[in-house]
Specification:
By secondary structure, the protein is of the alpha/beta class. The protein folds into two domains: 8-120 and 245-314, Bordetella uptake gene, domain 1 (D-Maltodextrin-Binding Protein, domain 2, 3-Layer(aba) Sandwich); 123-220, D-Maltodextrin-Binding Protein, domain 2 (3-Layer(aba) Sandwich). Helices cover 45% and strands 19% of the residues. The protein contains twelve helices and eleven strands. The chain has helices at residues 4-24, 42-58, 73-81, 94-101, 108-111, 135-144, 159-171, 183-192, 206-210, 258-272, 275-283, 293-314, and strands at residues 31-35, 62-66, 87-92, 112-121, 123-127, 150-153, 176-179, 197-201, 215-220, 246-253, 287-288. A six-stranded mixed sheet has the order 2-1-3-10-4-11, with helices on both faces. β6, α7 and β7 (176-179) form a beta-alpha-beta unit. α2 (42-58) packs across α10, α4 packs across α12 and α7 packs across α12 (293-314). The radius of gyration is 22 Å and the shape is globular. The N and C termini lie far apart (68 Å).
Length: 319
């Protein structure tokens, strides 16, 4: 027995050493970064830029794979079911909205580990020139004529719809909702004056605003728009709660070891600080964010709770 004990201790020490070495060597093979939206989308653009920089820093290729569908839930579920930290998700605001609208077979907050908040694409409250020319004027008219002023969205349950409902709650008004099947026709009708307001990703309407065809009433996000620096945020315009634009984050399976999460967070932070990354983001009015994995996890919980309140209060049903 005395001869066995030293051998056992040595074996346990060797096992621990091998385990520690395996974690230190992460990653030891190529990785995948899943995107829940089609190629060419803002999420896809961010993912491909981030993948290149992460691959260079980690010494292993990071391959982007687009798995569009179900508002990014298909891609998110694939990552939630992955056995290790070699399959990642470029998450979006949609992942915190979906649980309140649909029955999804996983828990986004529990089954995916937060790595880092990556970037934000600001939203915008755009208006036809015949609409009120300021948020203050819009609120005054909406209170005087409840339900008569309408806003368009890209569809029921989309973030553009929920922005409008959150605006209603925060401003104490009732704008009517007109859902479209996609943002293209909604923008066409806004330009034609058939609809007066549209909550939308800023980049899609900035050219029309600069051409004088549309008005920018306020931006949705933490900072002013780079392309439209004189436009106030909704918070500055007196409407609190709409300070998160269309955000994008990096998530791993919940099974990923903490050492892998920490390494991925560090390299993501470094990538976002690179001048060429900042330049490429700025060209599309995308703002790099960053922060700790714990702060991103807290942010996910806050966003999920916020959109659950909006969905419940507005009695929105997923289609």
């Amino acid at each position: 027995m005395r001869r066995i004990i030293p051998w056992l201790v040595a074996a346990l020490a060797l096992s621990a050493s091998i385990g520690a070495q395996a974690q230190t060597d992460f990653p030891s093979r190529p990785m995948k970064l899943l995107v829940g939206f089609p190629a060419g989308s803002t999420a896809d653009i961010i993912a491909r830029l981030l993948a290149v920089k992460l691959g260079e820093a980690l010494g292993q290729p990071v391959v982007v794979e687009d798995r569009a569908g179900a508002g990014s839930s298909i891609a998110a579920e694939a990552v939630a079911r992955a056995p290790d930290s070699y399959t990642l998700l470029l998450s979006t605001i949609a992942n915190t909205i979906n649980p309140s609208l649909f029955k999804i077979p996983f828990d986004f907050s529990r089954d995916l580990a937060a790595v880092a908040l990556v970037a934000e694409a600001p939203g915008l409250l755009a208006a036809h020139p015949s609409a009120p020319h300021s948020v203050k004027e819009l609120i005054a008219q909406a209170k005087a004529r409840p339900g008569e002023i309408a806003y368009a969205s890209a569809g029921t349950g989309t973030v553009t719809h929920l922005y409008g409902e959150l605006f209603n709650l925060a401003a104490g008004v009732k704008l009517a909702h007109v859902p479209y099947k996609g943002s293209g026709q909604a923008q066409t009708d806004l330009l034609a004056g058939r609809i007066k307001l549209l909550f939308t990703p800023a980049a899609t309407v900035i050219p029309h605003i600069k051409a004088g065809k549309l008005l920018a009433l306020a931006s949705i996000g933490r900072e002013h728009l780079v392309a439209l620096p004189g436009v106030p945020t909704l918070a500055e315009a007196g409407v609190p709660g709409l300070d998160a634009g269309l955000w994008f984050g990096l998530n791993a399976p919940a099974a990923a070891p903490r050492s892998a999460i920490d390494r991925l967070n560090r390299e993501t932070q470094r990538a976002l600080a690179l001048p060429d990354v900042k330049k490429q983001f700025a060209a599309q009015d995308i703002q790099p964010l960053g922060g700790s994995s714990d702060s991103f996890a807290a942010f996910i919980r806050q966003e999920t709770e916020k959109w659950a309140r909006v969905v419940k209060t507005a009695n929105i049903k997923g289609e």
